[in-house]
Specification:
Radius of gyration: 18 Å
Order of helices and strands: HH
Largest sheet: none
Shape: elongated
Strand content: under 5%
Oligomer: single chain
Helix content: over 70%
Number of strands: 0
Number of domains: 1
Structural class: mainly alpha
Length: about 70
């Protein structure tokens, strides 16, 4: 499951860099804001993935087995 998320994150970062390049060429603030939001979304997706992975691994390893 990690590989599709990493591919999506790389695509989001590439799109963010493309938007930032357009922003500098056209001198538009809206492209800069859009690129920042896309980069933050990519970072947030990775943070949530790793937090949920740690949470699920913690919940599945019970300290009191029933055997």
């Amino acid at each position: 499951m990690l590989m599709p998320i990493l591919i999506l994150d790389v695509a989001l970062v590439a799109w963010s860099l493309h938007l930032m390049q357009q922003a500098f060429n056209n001198k538009e603030l809206s492209f800069i804001l859009a690129a920042t939001l896309v980069a933050l979304a990519a970072a947030a997706m990775l943070v949530v993935y790793f937090l949920m992975g740690n949470c699920l691994s913690y919940l599945t390893h019970s300290p009191y087995p029933y055997s």
